[in-house]
Design goal:
By secondary structure, this protein is an all-alpha fold. The chain has one domain. 63% of the residues lie in helices and 0% in strands. It is built from 5 helices and no strands. Helix 1 packs antiparallel against helix 2 and helix 1 packs antiparallel against helix 4. It is rod-shaped, with a radius of gyration of 35 Å.
Length: 172
């Protein structure tokens, strides 16, 4: 039985970390001079990055921070690099400076993208839930429009106040 997650973005975070770790490991290796892997290496890379994404998705919500996201993406980059190195790959286990910089830049950029996507996802899910649930919203009551009385002549007002409206009794 899986523990209940209080964060609605846990699945999004795990999926994004797994997918971006795999894609960026290949891209960073290519940009860093490591070449592009064959299909067997890609298969192992996908399994490793799916594992990293699953672990990230099941981390309790109290550990969801930007530093934890950077750590998960860094773990994904390390897992991707080690997986690509373990297969018939061209370079040594310790990457060159250009490849390290490519991995680091990819990790930081992806962390920013995932954090932004989580924020957008939270906002959209909140709006969607409010719309679907039909939660009561405060209703603005429009008061009757106020029509100012026309400006009167002060003499007319004085005459109207001095004239009695009471008349003699009517005979029946």
């Amino acid at each position: 039985m899986s523990p209940a997650r209080s964060d609605a973005t846990a699945t999004l975070r795990g999926s994004a970390v797994g997918a971006l770790s795999a894609g960026l490991a290949v891209a960073a290796h290519g940009a860093g001079g490591g070449g592009f892997p064959a299909s067997a290496a890609l298969t192992l890379l996908l399994f490793a990055c799916c594992g990293v994404g699953a672990i990230t998705a099941n981390v309790p919500a109290r550990f969801h921070s930007k530093s934890a996201l950077l750590g998960a993406l860094g773990l994904g980059q390390v897992a991707g690099h080690l997986t690509l190195t373990a297969t018939a790959h061209v370079h040594a286990a310790i990457p060159a400076a250009a490849m390290l910089l490519a991995h680091a830049a990819a990790t930081v950029v992806c962390a920013l993208l995932i954090a932004s996507a989580e924020q957008l996802y939270r906002s959209l899910v909140h709006v969607w839930r409010v719309v679907l649930r039909g939660e009561p919203r405060p209703v603005a009551v429009d008061a009757a429009p106020h029509h100012p009385a026309p400006r009167e002549n002060p003499i007319d007002a004085l005459l109207r106040a001095s004239i009695s409206r009471r008349g003699p009794p009517v005979l029946v």
